[in-house]
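Run log, item B.
One chain of 356 residues. Sequence copied directly from the ordering sheet:
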Amino acid sequence: MLRSAADSPQQTAGVQSRPERTSGTGNDSKATASLVLWAGIAFSALFTLLIWALDFRLASIELLPDTGASWYYWKLPSPTFWTRATSWGFYLVHQFAIWAIIYYAQSYRKHRYTKGLHKANIWALTVNAAFIFLHLIQTHVWYDGLAQDTPIFSSQGAVIVLLVWVLLMENNRRGQFFGRPAPFSKEVVRFARTYHGYFFAWAIVYTFWFHPMVSTSGHLIGFFYMFLLLLQGSLFYTRIHTNRWWTFALEGTVLVHGTLVAVMQGNGLWPMFLFGFAGILVVTQMYGLGLSLPFRLLILGAFVGSALLVYGNFGWDRLNEIVRIPLIEYASVFVLAGLFWLGLRITRTVRHMRSA
């Protein structure tokens, strides 16, 4: 997943090319991206632990009663100028800083994929780390996030579109259905790959600032995942950014996060999230790993056997839950591709009219 920031011209054409061995720049770091990746994962885990350890300081904050699925519980009953100014102000600075780094990397530097870090990677890592610390401070001083002024579904929707965008972007490499690509035009896939970094950066940074850093189980898992996505978004133009096992792990984390949150909510819907996201893994995602046919059949068998076992206990009338999430995501891929195609066609028509 999540080849955020910027892709090389060869990759944006929809063909996976072998990363070059040289960076083409003379100011790049000698630190390997793989080392930074492991350090970043450790940082993400330790910072998640820090959020949990400091949560006692937020115990005195009084919140309004929970009124249902459309209500976000973790926001102040009486927001002030400063609670809004800090949450929105820090978010906007963070957002535009990351966008500026992406634009710089794509427009002003002819990077190639390398083992080491580029200057832009160091900038992105520094900016993201600084705002992670700043968000923790902001939570403990002013508490509120963007949830105070935006619908709860906006954050969820941003992540869903991100996941759907990945399915479109990876269509040519791993296929859409059992290794076979959907009939999307090369122009649409190229557009998705070229500009995905800007949308991914928005979806991740917006979701990151949507929530205060509180230590419910769902928040802790969610923030750990956001840290990993910020890390991935900082490693553009490095080989680790396109490493198929790392990107697969990021996609798989959605399965773990969604299932565990559903378990913690106690609403009995965890099988829908588990087998829904696992269904996408079986139908699409595992085909990007180069696995042998026997191993893929083993994974498919484990999926089918586990589903039969679980729904044999929960009731066969709920078996349709397995297809709900996949149907939504696959339908959304075609909708997103259609929107891109329409936008590109309109743009081409307007340019033709202007040049006529």
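Observations after the first pass:
- The mean pLDDT is 88.
- Residues 5 and 197 are 4 Å apart (CA to CA).
Flagged for discussion on Thursday.
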